[in-house]
Design goal:
Order of helices and strands: HEEHEEEEEHEE
Distance between the termini: 38 Å
Number of strands: 9
Helix content: 10-25%
Radius of gyration: 20 Å
Structural class: alpha+beta
Shape: elongated
């Protein structure tokens, strides 16, 4: 009898933990995109780059299971190049699907000595269900202004994390 009770407790704990892990995976969705800022790009000029991505269904196959998708964190990191994020004057990150483009994060007045990584200010009031659950390919577009021209090509990664809540059927 004692073994049956212990087995039942272990089985219940396993199911609950699997459900929790599944919930976390479905409700916290990462999205990364890479861009190249080329050597000699003009300073004090608005420039942009586009990185292809995937829809929520392609990322985690959970579009019917979640709702109220919002951006929760956003960072930009220089992954290669001689200069850090201090070369940027301002950065804006948009995601789009079809004709629907939404500003998800931005940062202005970036310090010269910021280093290789920069946290962006997230627009988490915007619900992104129409974009993320559209079934179309998602693109991430970065719009930026440089303080000075880069001395070498810079590879930059934009990392976004989205949060959501479970959709009740």
């Amino acid at each position: 009898m004692k073994n049956i009770f212990i087995t039942a407790v272990v089985a219940t704990a396993t199911l609950v933990s699997c459900s929790t892990v599944s919930s976390v995976l479905q409700n916290t969705l990462p999205y990364n995109s890479n861009f190249v800022v080329t050597q000699g790009s003009p300073a004090n000029t608005q420039l942009s780059a586009v990185g292809a991505g995937t829809s929520l269904n392609q990322i985690a196959n959970v579009s019917n299971n979640v709702k109220d998708i919002r951006a929760s964190t956003a960072t930009m990191t220089v992954t290669s190049g001689a200069q850090g994020m201090g070369v940027f004057q301002s950065v804006r990150v948009y995601i789009s699907s079809g004709n629907n483009e939404v500003l998800v994060a931005s940062r202005d007045n970036i310090a010269d000595n910021i280093g290789n990584s920069l946290s962006l200010d997230v627009n988490n009031n915007q619900i992104l269900d129409n974009v993320m659950k559209s079934g179309n390919a998602i693109q991430q577009r970065i719009v930026y202004v440089l303080k000075s021209s880069p001395t070498a090509d810079m590879s930059v990664r934009s990392s976004l994390t989205f949060s959501s809540i479970p959709a009740t059927q």
